[in-house]
Amino acid sequence: MKIQIINGPNLNLLGVREKSIYGNTNFETYLEELKKRFADIEISYYQSNVEGEIINKLHEIGFSYDGIVINAGAYTHTSIAIADAIAAINTPVIEVHISNVYKREEFRHSSMLAACCKGVIAGFGMDSYRLAIENFSA
Q1: N or C end: fewer C-beta atoms under 10 angstroms in the chain?
Q2: Is the pLDDT score of 94 beyond 80?
Q3: Would residue 89 be called left, alpha or beta, if left means φ above 0 and alpha means ψ between -120 and 50 degrees?
Q4: Distance CA 32, CA 36 (A)
Q5: 40 among the known binding-site residues?
Q6: What would the DSSP string read from start to end of 12-27?
Q7: pTM value?
Q8: What is the mean pLDDT of the chain?
């Protein structure tokens, strides 16, 4: 089984930005934990702050992987283009968020991507990624 994790803008700063919301752990450290926990799954990771690069990655892997876990960051709330890319591919996608977006600013309560995704997981910290991977491996 092959799972791709895609993180969007500013998620390269996990562990150093807004620790009260996102915690103290950088994603690379957490990724190693995920890979150990799911040793039988090939987990790939991609991060970009650029919308078009995220779309290109979805196109690249969207017909050959078993699942995609995407945290599109702020693009969640603004990107029709990423939503269209998710709708265009065959690989199921789960949208994740580290924070509970519904406890935050109102503009974060709306997702352009959710309707194109298999599901949405939010508010469980980094564990949101684990929960998504468990869904694909169940």
Answers
A1: C
A2: yes
A3: beta
A4: 6
A5: no
A6: GGTTTS-HHHH-S--H
A7: 0.92
A8: 91
Is 26 annotated as contributing to ligand binding? no
Expressed as residue numbers, the domain containing 70 is 2-137
130 marked ligand binding residue = no
Task: Please name every residue paired with 44 in a beta bridge, in sequence order, or none if there are none.
Answer: 4
CB atoms within 10 A of CB 86: 26
Give catalytic residues, as residue numbers: 22, 97
pLDDT tens digits for range 43-87: 999 999 999 999 999 999 999 999 999 999 999 999 999 999 999
**Residue 96, Cβ density class (10 Å: 0-12 exposed, 13-18 middle, ≥19 buried):** buried
What b/e sequence results for 31-51 when a residue is b if at least 16 CB atoms lie within 10 Å of its CB, and e otherwise?
A: beebeeebeebebebbbbeeb
Q: What is the domain-level CATH number for residue 71?
A: 3.40.50.9100
